[in-house]
Amino acid sequence: MKEKIKNYSVHFVKEIIPVIAGILIALFIDNWNSDRKDKNYINQVLTTIKSELKGSKEDINTIIPQHQSLIDSLELYSNNKNISIFDILRKSNGINIPQIKTNAWKSVASYKIDLIDFDKITLLSNIEDEKTTLNKKSDFLMSFLYSNINAIDKNSKLTLQLILSDILQTEKTMHRRIEQFETR
What we know:
Elements lengths: L1 H75 L8 H7 L11 H7 L8 H31 L5 H29 L2
Helix pairs in contact: 1-3, 1-5, 4-5
């Protein structure tokens, strides 16, 4: 009886070892395949993020000189009571706000964020925060302009100049953050 149990146990171990080895190999292959898919996904998302940020950076590069020119025009015409804010805006081709694209970042921020390097996450979060800040400042600018578009007084022109300077600073900060992301 002891001999039968011993033989049965040896036979059981001989049969179970290949099964366990097969399961372990299958798990290893599954993990490897999953990691490979995750890396491909993250690489694709990072490529899309870089493309979006490149377009945003180009937009910022175009708009910064326009805003600086408008600020200079407001300074130049600040004492001239014959020229309204509307006239200055018309001569300067209006006000443009850069379009900051962060769609790819938003999609990955809620899904598989743990696969991205912490430094990149920090930079992308900062860019998103700057975008929110820029949107709020732009809303404030538009509210100011709607109620002061025909103003000719120096104080209104200087206030607009300050608001635009603040927006310009935010644009420059965002530009630096995008450049930091691009170098990582």
